[in-house]
Design brief:
The chain is α+β, with helices and mostly antiparallel strands. 30% of the residues lie in helices and 26% in strands. Strand 9 and strand 10 form a beta hairpin.
C-alpha cells in the first residue's frame, strides 16, 4: 500500500457527469482526482441527446465548438401510431434558443466523452486515473473521507484522503451503498432492444425523433450523426437481443425507415438490451459524500434527459463546493444541492414516465386513448414546456433561491444567454462567479459592494433581450448565480446588492504524499 495523500475532491466515475464536475471544479481552482474503472472511454453509445440548457453547460466547460462539430441539431419529437401515422408533433427550433444553442442536439456518447476527457486533460487542477477499482470509503476522525482503490494493472492498493467525494459511479454505485442510500422505485421497468446502424446512405426521413406508440411493440427512431442511426424497441416476453443479432432479423422492426435502402448499404454497429427504469435515491448526501448522475437517479429515455440530469447535478454542486473550499461560501450552502436537484429530477422522471406510458399503454383501449389524448398533450403545462420549449422547471425555494409572490417571477430559472454589446454571449461576459443584471444603473456604493464581493455587474441596454426579460419578471435587477440560475430578483437594488454572496475565489490545492 502506498503512502496516503490528500486531495480536496475525489470524483468517482469518469463518465459525462464525473468529468463535467471535475472540469468545473478545476476551473474554480479546486484540485481534484477522478477515479474510473475503465482505462479508456467506454466504447458503447448510450445517451444520444441533450437540450440547449445542457449545451450551455457544455459551453461553460469550454468545448461548445468541439461539441457542435460532433453533434446534430434535431427537429424535435413525433408520436406515431402503429401504422406510422402522426398523432402529435413537438418541434424544437434548430436555430439558437434563448440559451444560445439549438434546443435539441443528437450525438454519439463515446465521441462526446472523448471530447470531455481531452478537455479535462487541459485542466491543471484535475487528474484522471483510469483502470482502477474503488473498494471502500470511510470517514476519518477529522471528517475527511478515505477512498481506497486498487490499481487493476498491478493489483496495488492505494488510499486517498479527500475533503469531499462525489459519487458519479452510475446505477450500481458503490458510493450509494456506502452512504446507505436506497433507490426509490417510481414504478417503471421495461426491457428494450437498442440498435445502432451506420450508413453513408441518407435514409431521407424526418430529421427528428420518432416515438412509435404501440402497446405490442413500442419503438423509437433517431438520427444521431451524419452516418449514424439509432432504434430502440420494447422487447416482448421471452425475447433477447440475441434474437435480433443480424440485419435480416431486424428487418421487420426497422423496415418503415429503411425499406428503400439496400441491406448491403447498412452496417450493424451494435445490438444490445437495456432495462429502462425510473428510480430516485432517497438520500443524495451523507456528510462530505455526494451522489450525482445515475448514482442518484435513473430516468427513462423518452424525453432524452437522462445524461443531462447528471450534468445539471454537476453544475449545481461544483460552484457551491468550490465556494465552501475556498472559504467564500458557508458550508451549509451544500444542503441546497439535494433540496434543489432532487425535486427537479423527480419532475423530469415523471415527465418521461408520462411520455413512456403514452407510448406503451396496452391493448386496443390504450390505442383509443392515445388517438384521443396524445394530439392534446401540448395543452398540458409540464409536457408543453419541456417538449415544445425545452425549458425545464424552476428550482424550488432554498437559501440560494429567494422566491417572492410576484407572478412569473424569475427566481429559480435560468437567465437568458444572448449576445451582448461586446459580441460575446452573456455567459462569457459574466465569468464564473456571481453577477447582477440590472436595467437601472447602480449607485457607486452598490458597485463598490459588487467589486468587494467579486461579482460582475451587467447593465442591460434599454430594449434589449435582457431588459425585456427583467421587465416580464417585474424586476429591475436580478442576482445571477454561477450556474446562471436567478437567485433573487426585484426592484430594490440596495436590497439586492446587500444580498449578493461572495464569488468563488482562490485556489485549493492537493498536498502531495511524501516520496
Amino acid at each position: 500500500m502506498t503512502a496516503v495523500s490528500h486531495v480536496p475532491v475525489v470524483v468517482i466515475g469518469a463518465g459525462p457527469t464525473g468529468v463535467t464536475a471535475a472540469t468545473l471544479l478545476a476551473q474554480f481552482g479546486v484540485d481534484c482526482l477522478v477515479l474510473d474503472r475503465w482505462a479508456q472511454v467506454y466504447p458503447q453509445p448510450r445517451a444520444v441527446h441533450l437540450d440547449d440548457e445542457i449545451f450551455r453547460i457544455v459551453a461553460r466547460l469550454g468545448i461548445a465548438d468541439e461539441f457542435a462539430a460532433i453533434s446534430r441539431p434535431t427537429l424535435g419529437l413525433r408520436l406515431l401510431d402503429r401504422s406510422m401515422h402522426t398523432l402529435a408533433e413537438f418541434r424544437r427550433d434548430t436555430a439558437l434558443s434563448r440559451n444560445g444553442f439549438p434546443q435539441a442536439n443528437m450525438f454519439d456518447q463515446p465521441e462526446f466523452e472523448a471530447v470531455l476527457r481531452t478537455n479535462l486533460a487541459r485542466q491543471s487542477h484535475a487528474e484522471l486515473r483510469g483502470d482502477v477499482e474503488v473498494t471502500d470509503l470511510a470517514a476519518d476522525a477529522r471528517g475527511r473521507v478515505c477512498v481506497t482503490y486498487a490499481d487493476r494493472t498491478d493489483g496495488s492498493e492505494h488510499i486517498i484522503e479527500a475533503d469531499y467525494v462525489l459519487g458519479c459511479d452510475g446505477a450500481n454505485s458503490i458510493v450509494r451503498s456506502r452512504i446507505d442510500s436506497r433507490m426509490e422505485d417510481l414504478g417503471f421497468e421495461q426491457r428494450w432492444l437498442v440498435v445502432d446502424v451506420a450508413t453513408a446512405t441518407d435514409l431521407a426521413h424526418w430529421e427528428g425523433v420518432d416515438q412509435v406508440c404501440d402497446p405490442d411493440r413500442a419503438g423509437t427512431y433517431m438520427r444521431i450523426g451524419e452516418t449514424r442511426y439509432r432504434w430502440e424497441f420494447q422487447l416482448l416476453a421471452g425475447e433477447t437481443a440475441a434474437d435480433f443479432a443480424t440485419l435480416d432479423a431486424l428487418g421487420p422492426l426497422i423496415r418503415p425507415w429503411v425499406d428503400h435502402v439496400s441491406r448491403a448499404d447498412l452496417e450493424l454497429v451494435r445490438v444490445t438490451e437495456y432495462t429502462f427504469r425510473a428510480q430516485l435515491a432517497d438520500r443524495w448526501r451523507r456528510g462530505r459524500i455526494f451522489l450525482l448522475g445515475d448514482a442518484a437517479h435513473l430516468t427513462p429515455p423518452f424525453i432524452g434527459q437522462g445524461m443531462g440530469a447528471g450534468l445539471r447535478d454537476a453544475m449545481n454542486l461544483a460552484w457551491k463546493l468550490a465556494g465552501v473550499l475556498t472559504g467564500t461560501l458557508p458550508s451549509d450552502v451544500l444542503e441546497t444541492y439535494e433540496q434543489e436537484r432532487k425535486p427537479h429530477a423527480r419532475h423530469m422522471i415523471r415527465l418521461a414516465l408520462a411520455v413512456g406510458r403514452a407510448m406503451t399503454a396496452g391493448g386496443e383501449f390504450g390505442n383509443l386513448i392515445r388517438r384521443m389524448v396524445v394530439p392534446r398533450l401540448h395543452w398540458l403545462p409540464g409536457l408543453s414546456t419541456n417538449l415544445v420549449d425545452s425549458e425545464t422547471p424552476a428550482l424550488h425555494r432554498t437559501a440560494l433561491v429567494c422566491k417572492t409572490r410576484v407572478p412569473r417571477q424569475l427566481a429559480g430559472r435560468l437567465c437568458p444567454n444572448p449576445l451582448v454589446v461586446s459580441g460575446a454571449r452573456l455567459d462569457t461576459e459574466l465569468g464564473n462567479g456571481f453577477a447582477v443584471i440590472t436595467r437601472t444603473a447602480p449607485s457607486a456604493a452598490e458597485r463598490a459592494v459588487a467589486d468587494e464581493r467579486g461579482a460582475v455587474v451587467h447593465l442591460a441596454a434599454p430594449g434589449s433581450e435582457l431588459a425585456s426579460w427583467l421587465c416580464r419578471g417585474r424586476a429591475d435587477a436580478a442576482i445571477i448565480r454561477p450556474d446562471r440560475t436567478v437567485m433573487r430578483a426585484g426592484r430594490d437594488l440596495a436590497t439586492l446588492f446587500d444580498a449578493l454572496p461572495r464569488s468563488c475565489g482562490g485556489t485549493v490545492r492537493k498536498v502531495k504524499a511524501p516520496q
